[in-house]
Write a structure and sequence with these properties.
Distance between the termini: 54 Å
Structural class: alpha+beta
Largest sheet: 5 strands, mixed, barrel
Order of helices and strands: HHHHHHHEEEEE
Number of helices: 7
Number of domains: 2
Strand order of the largest sheet: 1-2-3-5-4
């Protein structure tokens, strides 16, 4: 155990160890929150810390540069929840960096300098994240829905999945159509004063652009 700790705490592995510790901490908090039935979770807290993470690229108030637009498109930003992108990227970043150092240390009994492993891990983690997110969208998100199909979702019950939905900051939710297919949509409150928390059930009452506005589900 001491050998492992010493290995992870080396300066050459610092960034990779920290990224894996962050992922471990998030997992522990989510597990405790789920096990104890607590209302708050990292998914909810991330909405208040990173309120601009829940938006569609088509609704940006500014015109993104070509490079950023391409990067966001590759990682499926807006289709995959921000926190999932965050966790997946840092998991790959930390794992790849540690793996490189393990292999190098095994053969050469030394460590690669950080200025070599850092860019390698950043690029490799990005490519792995792109691959993972494409699989996520393909198998866990529905195929692109037409505008006509989306309009039929108005009046149906939905569930807020991640974060808090409030004025100007919609959250991701899911709703099933009349055929039982699941659609992942952005949900915002119809009333400016309303706030929908993660896990709450709402009714979609109107759609503007790519955002559905809802009211709280009344049993």
């Amino acid at each position: 155990m001491e050998i492992i700790i010493d290995f992870l705490m080396r300066s050459e592995n610092f960034f990779f160890s920290v990224s894996l510790m962050i992922i471990l901490l998030i997992s522990i908090i989510e597990f405790i929150s789920f096990f104890l039935g607590l209302g708050a979770s990292i998914f909810q807290l991330s909405n208040s810390i990173l309120p601009d993470s829940n938006f569609d690229l088509d609704n940006l108030d500014f015109e993104p540069s070509f490079v950023f637009a391409k990067l966001f498109g590759w990682i499926k930003f807006g289709k995959v929840p921000f926190l999932i992108i965050f966790i997946v990227y840092f998991f790959f970043f930390g794992s790849i960096g540690i793996f490189i150092q393990i292999i190098y240390n095994f053969y050469f009994n030394s460590f690669l300098p950080i200025f070599i492993t850092l860019p390698l891990s950043i690029i490799s983690a990005f490519l792995c994240t792109v691959f993972f997110n494409n699989l996520f969208v393909k198998y866990f998100s529905p195929s692109e829905s037409s505008a006509v199909e989306l309009e039929t979702l108005v009046g149906r019950e939905a569930i807020v999945l991640y974060g808090n939905a409030k004025k100007d900051y919609p959250a991701q939710g899911k709703v099933k159509d009349e055929f039982g297919r699941t659609h992942y949509v952005m949900i915002g409150p119809q009333a400016d004063s309303d706030i929908f928390c993660q896990g709450e059930r709402v009714v979609l009452v109107e759609r503007k652009n790519n955002i559905f506005y809802a009211v709280l589900y009344d049993l």
